[in-house]
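Task: fold both queries, return tokens.
Query 1:
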Amino acid sequence: MLYHIYETQRSLMEPFTDFAQAAAKLYSNPLSPLSQSPLAQRMSAGYDLLYRLGKDYEKPAFGIQSVDVDGVGVAIHERVEMDKPFCELRRFKRFSDDPATLTKLKTQPVVLIVAPLSGHYATLLRDTVRTMLKDHKVYITDWKNARLVPLSDGEFHLDDYVNYVQEFIRHLQGEYGNCHVISVCQPTVPVLAAVSLMASRGETTPLTMTMMGGPIDARKSPTSVNNLATNRSFEWFENNVIYRVPQNFPGAGRRVYPGFLQYTGFVAMNPDRHATSHYDYFKDLIKGDDASVEAHRKFYDEYNAVLDMDADYYLETIQTVFQDYKLVHGTWDVRSPKGKIERVRPQDIKTTALFTVEGELDDISGSGQTKAAHGLCSGITHKEQKHLEAKGAGHYGIFSGRRWRDVVYPQVRAFILSHDAPKLKASPALQDASAPSAVPATAGKVAVARDVPATRIKPVAAKKTAAKPAVKSESKQPASKASAPSVGPAAGKVATKWVMPGDDLAPATATKAAPAEPVAVASAGPVVPSGATGKRRAAASKA
């Protein structure tokens, strides 16, 4: 009933929020007689704040139209690569009409960013995606709001999450030979499970795994999020925070953990900070500080937009990750799409390098929780493992903002580049006859290719063609048309020329308008009242 009461209250409030928005404009528009009254600015600011507090926040857009690559503007086309019932694999395809830039884009690493499914949308990683696009081909998991998924599409379990990740990895491996995986917050656990299962079956595993601020071992430095999960029983969560979607949504009748409960938990963690932020917003409206006002709006447009999670997935995550610690105890079994039960064994991972990142001030995933992945992945050699603690960074700061761009990202970029193997699948002609046959079947993974001596890879002279003023994409060439840039001297030079990302692409912010980094904007766990690839070269187009 709580969900129905909330939706009824929101529907009743909607006319008042619309009135507040209109009144704010009446008192601020210079052509309105009301704007000439002595208290016009205060009245306008008050109504605007009322509107912001009462409005319904929908899913934001990524809104990444272009990025700067070494001084050259690169256009970004966002598209859905795979569409699953509960998730979309979204690609940010890059286009350029500069031949040198296009060559550079084609040879850059492929990265799958697994976004958290813990209350907020994947757009929370907008800054992560924008920064990564300068040096990588980027894909991201864009999770759907469970209340918009019809019951006919079935349930969604934690096992399904793991299977989705495996399917996305295989898709990128089929396109490019292999890929790198970055998981932020909550998905560190299912991503580690997905790669472990692939390794146990003898499948090709990603070249690298980068895990940022996730609860691999929630027993270490427990936070308020962890304590809540351990202090309440599984039955308590099932009886108190699970509700059915009301009739006015496509997913009517589906059991979910509502987003508004998760949002209530977010705010409850830092109520004073949020109250101060809204009061500062009110004062900035009166003063006419447009920069601070806009920064506040952008932050809370993202922060207030939440989604529902399928009840089975939510409850299984609590039990598996925060109560039974099945991953660290070695007792986690996952059901494959074919119904086979498989044990998660991180120690079977051998050809995937591991990089973990933690924030010094993270109040969501405590110190040591993510680093615990190194102890579980005993099959990975020590030289293939790396850990970073970002000093002064909170949970949000390790994947967004200044510390992400200046401290974390340069090391993530260098780690990925140092383990990026030649795209042998895309360019079979680049190997001599002995290379493929010399690798045993059990070790015939792309990850092994990075150990092949450089003398065994023969550059092929690229055919010179006149530059055309056509907009081309970053897509790789088919195997039959592969050319040398992927491993030739010129490409090698490009691959090692990295430019430190600047702040010119960062959204304008004002320190007083948005809460400081310790404010939780993504949750590692429960917080209660908490296609076709097409042609590989775009056709020439006229301006």
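Query 1 returned. Query 2:
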Amino acid sequence: MSDRSVRDFGWDESLYEEQPPAATPPRPEPQAAPGGDPGGGHRRTGRRPRRSRKHRIIRWTALTVSLVILGTAGAGWAYYQHLNNQLGKGERASGASNVKKTKANAAGQTALNILVLGSDSRNSAANLKLGGAKYTQGDKPRADVIMLMHLSADRKNMSVISIPRDTRVPIPTCTDPDTGQKYAATGSVIINESLARGGPGCTLATVQNLTGVYVDHWMMIDFAGVVKMADAIGGVDVCVNQNVWDRSTAAQHGGSGLKLTAGHHEVTGKQALQWLRTRHAWGSDILRAKAQHMYLNSMMRTLRKQNVFTDTGHLRNLAEAATSSLKVSEEIGSIKKLYDLGMELKSVPTDRVTMLTMPSVADPQDPEAHVIPSKTDAPQIWSMLRNDIAFDANGKAKTSKTSKAGQTKGTVGSTASAGPSAASAASIAVHVVNGTAGDANGSPVNGRAGDLVKALSGAGFTQAVKDTTPQPAEATTVTYPAADGDQGRANALAVAKALNIPENSVKKSSHVSSVTLVAGSDWRDGTDYGKTLPSAGSAPDSADVINGSETGACMDVYAPYRW
């Protein structure tokens, strides 16, 4: 190829090695054509002006960079789509529940609640190998792990509440979104069955009804997925106080196979799954939840130490493991949305993360194997979630009320709102409902509606009347007819303010004909709802609280499983 043709194609070897410029004779000045045109009218000189070396370098540098960007973007987009495509997705809610999303606070912020589920499915070769219980192959999976994760509205604290899989609760009417099969509501069964009666969306509805907490999303993982994630993370520190071997014994068949010596260990893969599934060696399903909390806290600390975003190989492994292991509710079913969620979770410092277990007592129907929610302590946990009260005491709790004992209460929330003013108290019709039988095992407080009618009448709401229709509810609410619009909301807010009920408990409804106060199982006595709210960091001892910054926690091993 001639030098000229090389130049015409824009490729010059001088870009790749320095060469001295060739000596060229000076070009003659062009002769002026008649009329003074040096170009001779339409005549051209024999050679095009040569581009400078600098110009050629810029041209090729720009072209090369453009090609690299386009190529990388294409590969990145293809990989992004690959990750999106292997991420499982499903319907958010597939069961009956009247729990509504909490209103935003005065700053426009809303808390986020995510249900995290572990499936016990044995319907794949990998799960069958890891999970044991081969006789369940082909059965619909049950929920081996049920955790409710709460991210505060201001994104400054987070809590994870385990609901023991052996908890007896009512399960609502559910429809399996994959098959269309409908399941009738149950009076009271074990909560892990909800997953088999309509998928994760049925478990979500069951948890909403149990807690009165609106659940925004769900995420589910199976045995094989846990192993993949554990391997991708690369080792999580756990600790036992004695040698442990969770195996079959003469008294108890089964076991996870976990075998460790006393002290700290980094577990990965199958061993991590064994840790998370161990129950007999700890002594109960309640203590199994505690061991899971230790693992999760340690995992979060491990991920924070790893410089994931500068280690592309590690990041890719985590992305592959997560998307191939997880199934999520469809509204967060993309890599970007999961990434954004991860960034929100990452913003919470470890000492503002709290792990705890739903307080429970032995199930009267089967005290050896099952539990029911505690009538006293469980409602306190759910109230703290609904009212976005931190379970840790490391942050400064905002206050709206101080009890007689001087304890700072959690944020109740303003009952002032933009819009029309409320009508006069005497003109507002209020129906008051006794919903105090709303927890899983509660009984109504006799005369509760009548006591609140008296309190409202004393505050000027002389049209307040007791409603005789039972309406058990976990949470206290004030609802107003949707057709009444902003005026109805203003009237409802006035009723709420009279009893110190937070604004986020005021909701519109198409099922009421006037302002309706339902006193839930979280408000069994008194006429000032604000006094029922717990203080920040005041979770009951029965919740077995662990803070995310704890590094020295170790599990005690039940004597028959020591070696």
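Both queries returned. Flag for query 2: The mean pLDDT is 81.
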